[in-house]
Amino acid sequence: MVVDDEQDVQLLFRQKFRRELKQEQIKLYFAFSAEEALEYLQSQLINHLALIVTDINMPGMNGLEMLKVIKDHYPNLKVFIITAYDDEYNYLTAKQYGADGYITKPIQFDKLKEKILNL
């Protein structure tokens, strides 16, 4: 699941993972807020998710706050944090809260694909 308040992220991820989607190697789900993502997790979708990729900066609950909630309730679910701001505070907070990956923008999709397909 990709969590980002920017709607165009959905198109970007669908383009970058076009081959993997067509070959049914992955499925992509999208949530446009942390709150929406947590609602999905409370439904049956948790059984279908291997990874959440989330932006930090979002209105309402941010990605780091969501990471903490996810790891408290679903400790085995992998979470990668994406940020445009590569600062030490966010990095250390993400690691403290249990992030499984920390990615800075612009996203290097080849590396991200490799990580996802090796989960």
UniProtKB/TrEMBL annotation:
Leader sequence segment: none
InterPro entries: Bact_response_regulator, CheY-like_superfamily, Sig_transdc_resp-reg_receiver
One GO term (biological process): phosphorelay signal transduction system
Pfam families given in the database record: Response_reg
UniProt modified residues of type 4-aspartylphosphate: 55
Domain of life: Bacteria
Residue span(s) of domain Response regulatory: 1-119
Record key words, sorted: Phosphoprotein
Protein name: Response regulator
